Amino acid sequence: MFTESQALRRVKPSATLAATDKARELARQGKNIISLSVGEPDFDTPENVKEAAIKAIRDGKTKYTNTDGIPELKEAICAKFSRENGLTYKPNQVNVSPGGKAVLYNAFVASLSPGDEVIIPAPYWVSYPDMVLLAGGEPVPVLTSIETGFKLTAEQLEKAITPRTRWLLLNSPSNPSGAAYTKAELRALADVLLRHPQVWVLTDDMYEHLVFDDFEFWTIAQVEPALYDRTLTMNGVSKAYAMTGWRIGYAGGPVELIKAMEKVMSQTTSNACSISQWAAVEALNGTQEFIKPHQKLFQERRDLVVSMLNQAAGLECPTPEGAFYVYPSCAGAIGKKTQGGRVIQTDQDFTEALLEQEGANAVHGAAFGLSPFFRVSYATSTERLEDACARIQRFCASLS
Ligand SMILES: Cc1ncc(COP(=O)(O)O)c(C=O)c1O
């Protein structure tokens, strides 16, 4: 009989994938379903990037590469960090992995020993705590609130740090809340970290280019250079250049950590896809004209969704600074009854009933560690968003 490993038994399956599966099943049964659970831009990869990949294939760039990235891509990443973040990294301080997800996992496997704690502000991206568990560490979620814009405060950070704290995991703009930290907010967190030299910072900047209303993006090593020697600045091409399927993520950090991550890769995945690496060189070095118009489009969609959801009875939807998600509170719906007589006791009851009654598929907040909320992704067309938000409004109005 098959039994899961001890390590895997600590981990739960992805709740976002489960929600998507359920919606797919209902669609197969002929129901009219709108999915608000997508985690990727609904645009195609830019042409110049595709062409670079085709050229790489034609030029025979189809073999194993250096384990943690081709020199050309590492140079492009160093240039990006310098140009956009004012951070100086040398190629031996850069890791390229098969996706941002793999960067995070390689960093945790490379650095965590049993009992090591990772502070994770909630709501968090679903994969963080389970990755930490798989790598043998202990996730320490810290609940933020709608009042602080879903951001960790300096006081909360100070309280959460113990002698076993190894990492603080920051994600700005955030999946699922869209919240992004200002320079002053990062400054306040940095001041706490300066008092605790054993704590390193892993900052997931995946959504850096999706910020709105002239919000100025900052990353923590830029705000406090004294943290540079214990920060892993992680990023990728997935969201900024609509390249989720290409599987390229990267990070800049201290040489010893980068070497340890390379060691993990050398015995597991080896290099990220050679062709995708050449495509990523073009994404970072080539024209950046893809970014601005999409930023603008996402901002318009955000405004539409926030406005429509705030008109739904019992919902409160803050306006996030970035990413392509909103994270409304459904506290006003808790305790109410659906038309079918079901009492909404949790945010999962809310999203399940919403799916059954109106065919709109969102993900419940418990999956992201903070209830009672739900996540709506607006990485879909304006028409579909209008339809979806109207369904949510109808559903909320039907509760009694
Ligand atoms: C916050 C965050 N970090 C990392 C990733 C992973 O990105 P990639 O597709 O490059 O593995 C995602 C993807 O959804 C994300 O939302």
How does this structure look, described?
The protein is of the alpha/beta class. It is 40% helix and 12% strand. It is built from 14 helices and 12 strands. The strands form 3 sheets. It has a 7-stranded mixed β-sheet with strand order 2-8-7-6-5-3-4, sandwiched between helices. The chain has a 3-stranded antiparallel β-sheet with strand order 9-12-11. A two-stranded parallel sheet has the order 1-10. Strand 6, helix 9 and strand 7 (231-236) form a beta-alpha-beta unit. Helix 3 crosses helix 11. The longest helix has 20 residues, at 291-310. The protein is globular and about 60 Å long. It starts with 5 loop residues before the first helix and ends with a helix. Pyridoxal-5'-phosphate is lined by residues 39, 99-101, 125, 171, 175, 204, 206, 236, 238, 244, 249.
